[in-house]
Amino acid sequence: MAGPSRPHQTLRPADLSSGSSREEGLSDGAVVIAAITSCTNTSNPRAMAAGGLLARNAVARGLATAPWTKTSLTPGSQATAELLRTSGLQSALDELGFQVAGFGCGTCMGNSGPLPGEVARQIRHRGLSVSAVLSGNRNFPGRIHPDVTDAYLASPPLVVAYAIAGRTTIDLDHESLGTDDAGEPVLLQDIWPTDEEIDAVVGVVGEPVLGASLPVTTGRWKQLPHPCSESYAWEAETGMIRRPPFADADVSGPMREGNIVGARPLLVLGDDITTDHISPVARILPDSAAGKWLTERGVPPGALGSFSARRLNHDVMLRGGFANPRLRNKLVEGRGGGWTRLLPDGEVMPVHVAAAAYERRGTPVVVVAGRSYGAGSARDWAAKVTRLLGVQAVLAAGFERIHRTNLVAMGVLPVECPSLSGFEVDGAEEFDVLGLEPGPLVNAALTVVIRRGGRRVFEEAALARVDTETEEEWMRAGGVLSRLLTAPAG
Asked: Which of 143, 263, 399, 443 could form a disulfide with 404 if both were Cys (CB 3.0 to 4.6 A apart)?
């Protein structure tokens, strides 16, 4: 077998032909991303040492990573990198493609970078269900990379092992990862490090390294050009850091006065919608709404980056709202996230375009969902983009607690209506939320009415999930920022 793979290995057509074995190439279950990420390494030097030792043992047996597997190592600190370098283990990781790519959040935040062009082409052309394996703590659908169907959390040594195997369909207890230079099969147990080996690395090398005071920045970082003015110069339209709109009059005030009447559903969603469905962090694809917007303004396709990197650009995030490719909007069955139907017209269009059309018409909009709405890694942008889209209320069978609070903080009303789970919306409906005036909002008893063709087809009790008096102050002001701006001085 050929020696260990090197960085930027060229992919040959034979490497990516259809099939299931290593020799036959890319197939369902193929591991296209293998990443050791900062979530694990900052807190567990033994796990990092184990990953380095397994890489050393694999290289010694002549194993290589699969040619279609993109590998990366993003330590959470320089101490981790120094531990691997001083122990001599980083060279083995380098041989397998796990060079240090940076420090801090990487693949967990969708910053794994683009897949090789031929890999991405085959995934889309052949409709493959491929995988990522990472040592992080976030693997929600569509988060790691838009083209990656499944993502699995694993320890650093297992990340290295799956990178060598190149597929998640392997039985690591009984199947070999590959063959050595002598043509003999190599099982995982053959190269798994012993506790004594791990103890030696952490005890002899780790203690002085992990206890040392390392510089926070580098000379190269300090030499980067930067503004020296007393005020920040906001970047232009396609910049990474733009002036946020949330204190502007058209965004910071209350979205509604009294009951919501005649609202149209912007999206109709199922159960367990996560904040990653609502506000993606993965790579921005050129053919996405955000990608097209950036490209039209002169950003090269290779520089689009990720939603996490551009999260301080509200126009990018607006176009990323509900655009996760794994999101299923029942108003447009058969299409991935980012699309909806403008009602009652029925025309299919991007979510943000439909939201703007409703605003011009003066038609209120709501999001309809099932149980556990907003589950997962609760991020502020999931609520911010909901507000920017002009959504007055989210009607759901149940809410995740942090996202519920974030919605209130942005002036979006969470309405809990368990009976919604049993009602099928076909797009002809109008929604009323009654009981919002007069009286207090805190856990107010509401009624959700759904009308189809002017006739009531649903009427059930609901609850305003404004849970405290402070939250009520936020809602009545239009959100927490508006409340702070209007609070009396002193």
From this structure: 399
What does the block give as tokens for 190? 């053959």
The DSSP-derived string for 237-302 is TT-SB---STTSHHHHS-S-SS-EEEEEEEEE--S--BHHHHS--SB--TTSHHHHHHHHTT--GG
Partner residues linked to 350 by β-bridges: 339
- Regarding whether 203 and 254 lie in a shared domain, the answer is no
Cα torsion 99, 100, 105, 106: sign: negative
**In the structure encoding, which two tokens stand for residue 305, read together?**
């980056």
Q: Is 185 in the same domain as 319?
A: no
Q: How far apart are CA 477 and CA 254, in angstroms?
A: 6
Q: What does each C-alpha distance from 2 to 6, 181, 227, 410 come to in angstroms?
A: 11, 8, 50, 57
pTM given for the model? 0.83
Structure tokens given for 313: 């650009």
**Mean pLDDT, range 457-468, rounded to an integer:** 97
CA quadruple 317, 318, 323, 324: dihedral sign: positive
Per-residue pLDDT tens for 360-372?
Answer: 999 999 999 999 9
Two tokens, residue 150: 């499944």
Domain extent for 59 = 13-210
pLDDT tens digit sequence for 211-233: 666 666 778 888 998 888 888 88
Q: CA-to-CA distance for 159 and 175, rounded, in angstroms?
A: 16
Q: Cβ atoms within 10 A of the Cβ of 183, count?
A: 8
User: Residue 477 — φ and ψ, nearest 5°?
Assistant: -85, -15
Tell me, what DSSP letter sits at residue 121?
Answer: H
CA distance 79 to 211: 8
Same domain, residue pair 151 and 262: no
Q: Which of 231, 66, 263, 96 is nearest to 165 (CA)?
A: 66
Q: Chain-wide mean pLDDT for the chain?
A: 88
- Report residue 219 CA to chain centroid gap: 32
What are the residues facing 339 on neighbouring strands? Answer: 350
**In whole angstroms, what is the distance from residue 328 CA to residue 339 CA?**
9
Domain count across the chain: 2
d(CA 421, CA 72): 42
Same domain, 167 and 272: no
Best CA proximity match to 257, nearest among 408, 444, 436: 436
* Same-domain status, 125 and 185: yes
Backbone angles phi, psi at 167, to 5 degrees: -155, 150
- Listed in order, strand segments (DSSP E) in 3-45 are 31-36
Please, are residues 62 and 181 in contact by the beta-carbon 8 Å criterion?
Answer: yes
End-to-end CA distance of the chain: 74
Write b or e for each residue in 363-384: b if 16 or more Cβ atoms lie within 10 A of its Cβ, otherwise e: ebbbbbbbbbbbbbbbbebbbb
Give the integer Cα–Cα distance in Å for 243 and 231. Answer: 12
